[in-house]
Amino acid sequence: MNARVRERDLRAPALTESDWTQVFHALLADAESPMVRAKAREAVSREIATVGLSWTGGDAKRSLKPGSLEDMLEVSSAVCNQRAAGVSGWVDKLDDRGWRLLLRQYAPIAVTEGSWIQYAFGPLRSHTASSAALLRAHSLYAGYGSCSANNGHRYLESLYGLGIALPPVTTWAFANDDQIATAVWREPAITLALSEFPETFLPEILGYNLFRAVYGLCPLIRAAEGFVRGQGAAIAYWQFHSSEAMRMQLVEAATVAIQAYLETGTAVSGLDEMNRSAIERIGTGLALAELLTGHWLDTVAGLVDRGGLSPRAQMLALVRRKASHAFGYHRHPRLRGHTIDDYLDPQHTDAAALLDELARSPYVRPGESGRSPLLTKLVQFGGPMFRIFTPAELDTIAVWIDSLSNADASAAQVRREAAGDMPRSVPTPAAGITPAHSSSARYTTASPVDRADGRRYNVRELYHRLLNVEAYPQALEAGGQFASEWLIRTGLGLGSDDRGLPFESYSAKALKTWLDAKHREQVDSYQADAGAITQSREEVIHQSVQLCPMVFIDGGWLQRFSSVVSCGSAIGSLLYHIYADELGNGSVTENHPNVYRELMRQMGVELPGFGTREFAFWRGFDDEAFDVPVFWLSISRFPRRFFPELLGLNLAMELSGVGGSYRQGRDLLRKYGYSSAFVDLHNTIDNVSTGHTAMALQAITLHLDGVASHSEGRVIDREWHRIWTGYRALKPPEGVRGWVRLARHRAAALLTRQP
After folding, report:
1. Residues spanned by CATH 1.20.910.10 within the chain?
2. CB burial class (10 A; 0-12, 13-18, 19+) of residue 290?
3. Is residue 700 a contact partner of residue 651, using CB atoms and an 8 Å limit?
4. Is 737 within 8 Å of 491 (Cβ atoms)?
5. Which CATH class is domain 533-731?
6. Phi and psi for 17 in degrees, rounded to 5?
7. CA-to-CA separations, 695 to 149, 213, 376, in angstroms, rounded
């Protein structure tokens, strides 16, 4: 990123604190929207440019400027030790309530821990050593296939044990928690934005990951372990971060990822200058991590130092939060000659003056909440404010009253704590981002797969663009349309073929029975007679080569389920487990695409570099070889829009070949002296008892059970039909019927389109 780009970015309007809240929520709830992705890219570009300029002559020079990997490790460790020493004085200032409020401030960071690398091992580079190392680190944060071991889940479990129950992370209610300071959202918003562009900002991601691996848990939150333990809440989150073995694994994975990345760059370019540039960018990512973690610590430390976590500060926040709704209901009650509405006027709310007057009024007995009419009469059954306050808000009022002394009540001095308060007004959406509960926030394809010049992408071009989507952001729209049309053409179908809907109304038992029968059918189809093999060596090689565009992105249909937030759910953890297995669980040699690359080497096949245009347009591939992989890449980018279909596709993928064609393929490969490792691997790992097929079935069952818990039969069956459409979609749609179905859909869309 050159200086001109940096300066241009910095001239753009700076994001406000409420913008960070919007970015955080949008990336969790609506990252499929092009507007959201554009805003995220703008946000992270500005942050990176700001850090970069501070190194190269900006006004705010930073002391952090490592020049090598060793320097980065040393600087990260020094920052960690310095901050640990600096927070020791704040611990004594926190009581039980203060600790709870402090821990609440860390929730947005804890639930997105590891998010900065969540997409850095996607289909384009999953086979590389750097991606394998990043996957190893990510699996530790995400709890590899176990939602209970997910760090975000662990942290929320601890909060729950402390009596803090937060809304689901992807909801607007979570991002709009009025007890969390707005400045807190900056770091998690940036890490989520950074993760969306692993190709554009890979060096910065590597540096960010290294700092976080060394830094570990924020020292102030680390100091909260004693309080959490003393309250009897779960401490698994703290045990993870206090484990030296875990820290060493994270640091090792981070350093290996950087070393592998640098070695690959040198091997490709042969230029030391490229490595120097890469080191600088990695250092920028590390500096960004130091900046953002420090920003959170400064924000919270300021609250501690200035009494921002005090009972009075919390009461001030409550009054400001309620003022707009309470105004107009308090015209008659007077406090020293003024109506309460005078203090609540949204145009000039004076919460501090109101609290001082309340403390001196007959409604409050300082230090005695149990005898104060505000809580004994006004908010009780029959009182004028019955059910106006939540139980948590009533507790805030009680703690504030109990914290008062007679001296406080009689003092005329008005204490203003604006700098230390935590006022939270409902943020307005940032430009280009709308809360996901708004109908306008949903991603909709505005145009067909056409490019600006009116022509359509062929599958080879779309394959290349979707693999390199950051260079071709418009390809996402094309991919969404491709997936939609593929699914429409596939249709549900009630025919007699082997993919027909097995039963109209969903039944978990019927689905399990069908699966067992289908598996048995595949097992019985296997013919062990070598004489039945009629393909020649040349035919075997040709057929194997045609699978490369698909196999080289093995697991790609699940690529967006590596989100650390998704991994914290029961279904998400199952899908992540499958995805991580396909990628080799952090092992380059066990990576499924690499296993297949070895087969190509045995066959003497030399392929162009994967991900290049030459690969997509290599003459050794038939056009049809790209149909299914383009569908995978397309549908995978829209896990919210096509979630039921993805569940069905996943089942079809994991079940296909088990017991039958995989064993037939093994015999065929071995006949000509080739390794059968790839088919052998899938025949075992996809098994229907405990393997991927069983997990795929469990994910469907969990989803439909969830739908059934709040819907009636028709809704469940519609969802079931969508799942089965996804199951059918593994096989490319064929015949006139599919095209007729698509034509009807387009005609209906034209007739219903709003003018």
Report:
1. 533-731
2. buried
3. yes
4. yes
5. mainly alpha
6. -60, -40
7. 17, 31, 54
Q: Residues with Cβ < 8 Å from 678, sequence gap 6 or more?
A: 551, 592, 595, 596, 599
Compute and round to an integer the Cα radius of gyration of the chain: 29
Highest-scoring range by mean pLDDT, 3-12, 65-74, 243-252: 243-252
Q: Which amino acid is at 49?
A: A
Q: What pLDDT does residue 732 have?
A: 79
* Amino acid 312: pLDDT: 80
Q: Distance from CA of residue 627 to its chain's centroid?
A: 28
Own/partner long-range contacts of 709-715 (Cβ < 8 Å, ≥24 apart): 713/505
Model confidence pLDDT, tens digit, residues 520-565: 999 988 887 655 678 899 999 999 999 999 999 999 999 999 999 9
404: its two tokens: 């008062």
Q: Helix (H, G, I), strand (E, B), or coil: what is residue 450?
A: strand
CA dihedral (202, 147, 215, 129) positive or negative: negative
pLDDT for residue 496 is more than 80? no
The CATH number of domain 3-306, selected from 1.20.910, 1.10.3860, 1.10.4030, 1.20.81:
1.20.910
Taking CA atoms, 678 is separated from 589, 595, 662, 665, 702, in Å, by 12, 6, 9, 10, 30
User: What mean pLDDT do residues 337-359 have?
Assistant: 83
Helix H, strand E, coil C: the string for 417-441 is CCCCCCCCCCCCCCCCCCCCCCHHH
How many helices and strands (H and E) does the chain possess?
37, 2
- Nearest by Cα to 502 from 515, 520, 490: 515
Whole-number Å distance between alpha carbons of 665 and 540 = 10
Answer left, alpha or beta for residue 592, where phi above 0 means left and psi between -120 and 50 means alpha.
Answer: alpha
pLDDT for residue 680 is more than 90: yes
Residue type, position 628, single letter: V
CA–CA distance from 411 to each of 11, 356, 404, 660, 680 (Å)?
Answer: 49, 8, 11, 85, 81
pTM above 0.85, yes or no: no
243, exposed or middle or buried, with CB in 10 Å at 0-12, 13-18, 19+?
A: middle
Residue 339's SS3 state is: strand
Looking at this protein, which amino acid is placed at residue 33?
A: S
Structure tokens at 652: 């079809």
Per-residue three-class SS string for 278-334: HHHHHHHHHHHHHHHHHHHHHHHHHHHHCCCCCHHHHHHHHHHHHHHHHCCCCCCCE
731/529 Cα distance (integer angstroms)? 27
Q: CB–CB of 479/637 below 8 Å?
A: yes
Q: Are strands 334-335 and 338-339 parallel, antiparallel or unpaired?
A: antiparallel
Do the Cβ atoms of 280 and 263 come closer than 8 Å? no
Residue of 448, 631, 474, 461 lying closest to 557 (CA atoms): 631
